[in-house]
Design a protein that fits this description.
With 151 residues, the protein is of the alpha+beta class. Helix content is 52%, strand content 19%. The protein has a four-stranded mixed β-sheet with strand order 3-2-1-4, covered by helices on one side. A two-stranded antiparallel ribbon has the order 5-6. The longest helix has 31 residues.
């Protein structure tokens, strides 16, 4: 059996009205889960009672996943940045060019060769913001992990 109760709570008016000022999740031995939030009467007392009266209960903070994923946040940021840089490099290397064509009569004409189609440009234009948001999110999660990890 385990109980998940946040270690540090930042309570403000909106959180209290939505019931987010207290969250507790009980995972019972049979696989059942019980969720208690701030709207339940005596919610914090119930959580404390479970911890006090169950000697084998494992208390979790709710952010243990960050300990397992700490380094993966930086790897994810690196992947997002690499994908973004490779897309920009692809566009730069496949710029529109002109080529000279000489026909049988000796006439020379210049022809414009399209480097990248409009669909590819649109896909890159939509993908670059996704990569930027993904990289920023991964970096913020890593910094948050470093800041709040137990020492």
């Amino acid at each position: 059996m385990s109980i998940t109760m946040p270690g540090t709570t930042r309570i403000h008016g909106l959180a209290r009205r939505l019931g987010n000022d207290y969250r507790c999740r009980l995972a019972l031995a049979g696989g059942a889960r019980l969720h208690i939030d701030g709207h339940a009467a005596g919610a914090s007392g119930l959580g404390r009672a479970v911890v006090e009266h169950s000697p084998r209960v494992r208390r979790l903070e709710g952010d243990e996943w960050q300990e397992r994923a700490g380094g993966w946040f930086l790897a994810g940021a690196a992947v997002f940045l690499a994908v973004g840089v490779s897309m920009v490099t692809y566009l730069a290397n496949h710029a529109e060019t002109t080529r000279r064509i000489t026909d049988a009569n000796g006439m020379v004409r210049e022809e414009t060769v399209q480097g990248v189609s409009d669909g590819v440009i649109m896909a890159v234009g939509l993908s670059l913001p996704v990569c930027a948001v993904g990289a920023i999110t991964c970096i913020v999660l890593y910094v948050r992990y470093l800041r709040y990890r137990p020492r």
